[in-house]
Amino acid sequence: MAFSLSWACVIFGCIFASLAGTSSISEAYPPLWKESPGQFSDYNVENGKYIINVWHYPERLGTYKILLNKTAKYFEKFAPENEQNILWGLAVQHGWQYHTGRLADPTQTTDCGHESGDHLCISVDSWSADINYYLSAMPFFAAVDSGIMGISSDNVTVLPPSKDQMSFCYNVSSCHSSFPEVMKKWNEFYQHVKSNSSNCDDLLKYLWAAHVSSLEVARKNFHN
Ligand SMILES: *[C@@H]1O[C@H](CO)[C@@H](O)[C@H](O)[C@H]1NC(C)=O
Ligand SMILES: *[C@@H]1O[C@H](CO)[C@@H](O)[C@H](O)[C@H]1NC(C)=O
Ligand SMILES: *[C@@H]1O[C@H](CO)[C@@H](O)[C@H](O)[C@H]1NC(C)=O
Ligand SMILES: *[C@@H]1O[C@H](CO)[C@@H](O)[C@H](O)[C@H]1NC(C)=O
């Protein structure tokens, strides 16, 4: 565990700060960061709910962008410019998945995610995309639930994929009922983010617990 934790420190704590040291700051951000939604009002609204198509790369990336924006004030005490926000790691990893073609349809039966076709599409047949769902939609909904995002839990939903709908959840209440343990762990993390007394090591511990909990459930649903 001590080993895992120091790994977590490396991955989450330093990744952005070190990437930001590269020649151009724009290289540090995930692809299409600037173009992606950065606030709820950038998404479609239907019946008083924001509708997020998390099977479209910029819209899924936008959930991280809003999360980073809304949590920035809690990380100011560690470093300026949101550099020490330990949630950067998740966004950067997702950008890497996109950049390396891991979100495309591996069966090639559709052009989803392929350069020659619908290149922004995220395929439900991509194992990386499915696993990442548990590290994007769930941390996002738990943040909404914890009050950090500044909107009501009933006012946001994500779209289901074209198949395997039972393996995912789509709003705060359905995520709670389908994956209670995962939501609980992410909620605990946000409670500590909100608490002034948490130091960075504490936060990493709670983030790591939530991360592992997401991965355990994801792997159970998508074993291969
Ligand atoms: C949130 O949802 C409720 C219930 O559907 C609705 O009455 C309210 O207008 C919504 N709020 C916003 C800001 O869209
Ligand atoms: C968060 O987003 C708002 C709206 O786009 C922007 O005005 C604000 O500067 C952002 N805050 C941070 C810390 O990035
Ligand atoms: C949440 O999603 C479930 C099914 O996925 C649906 O039955 C329920 O009405 C939704 N709740 C809200 C508040 O949108
Ligand atoms: C937390 O910190 C902020 C700013 O540093 C301060 O305004 C606020 O009063 C603190 N809250 C508690 C409960 O200590």
Provide a compact summary of the structure.
The chain is mainly alpha-helical and 224 residues long. 49% of the residues lie in helices and 4% in strands. It has one domain (5-221).
Question: What does this 3D model show about the protein?
Answer:
This protein has 224 residues and is mainly α. It has one domain. The protein contains 8 helices and 3 strands, in the order H-E-E-H-H-H-H-E-H-H-H. The protein has helices at 2-19, 57-75, 88-99, 127-133, 137-145, 172-178, 180-194, 200-221; strands at 44-46, 49-52, 156-158. It has a 3-stranded mixed β-sheet with strand order 1-2-3. Strand 1 (44-46) and strand 2 form a beta hairpin. The longest helix has 22 residues, at 200-221. The chain is globular, with a radius of gyration of 17 Å. The model is unreliable at 1-10 and 19-25 (pLDDT under 50). The structure holds 2-acetamido-2-deoxy-beta-D-glucopyranose (4 copies). The site of one 2-acetamido-2-deoxy-beta-D-glucopyranose has 4 residues, from loops. One 2-acetamido-2-deoxy-beta-D-glucopyranose binds next to loops.
List keywords for this structure.
224 residues, mainly alpha, binds 2-acetamido-2-deoxy-beta-D-glucopyranose, Leg1, signal
| Rounded mean pLDDT score | 89
Which stretches of 5+ consecutive residues score pLDDT under 50?
A: 1-10, 19-25
Helix content: 40-55%
Given helix and strand content, the structural type is mainly alpha
Question: Helix tally?
Answer: 8
Q: What's the story with the biggest beta sheet?
A: 3 strands, mixed
% residues in beta strands: under 5%
Along the chain, the helix and strand elements come as HEEHHHHEHHH
User: Hetero groups bound?
Assistant: 2-acetamido-2-deoxy-beta-D-glucopyranose
The strand order across the widest sheet is 1-2-3
Number of E strands: 3
Shape: globular
Gyration radius over CA: 17 Å
Number of domains: 1
Termini separation: 25 Å
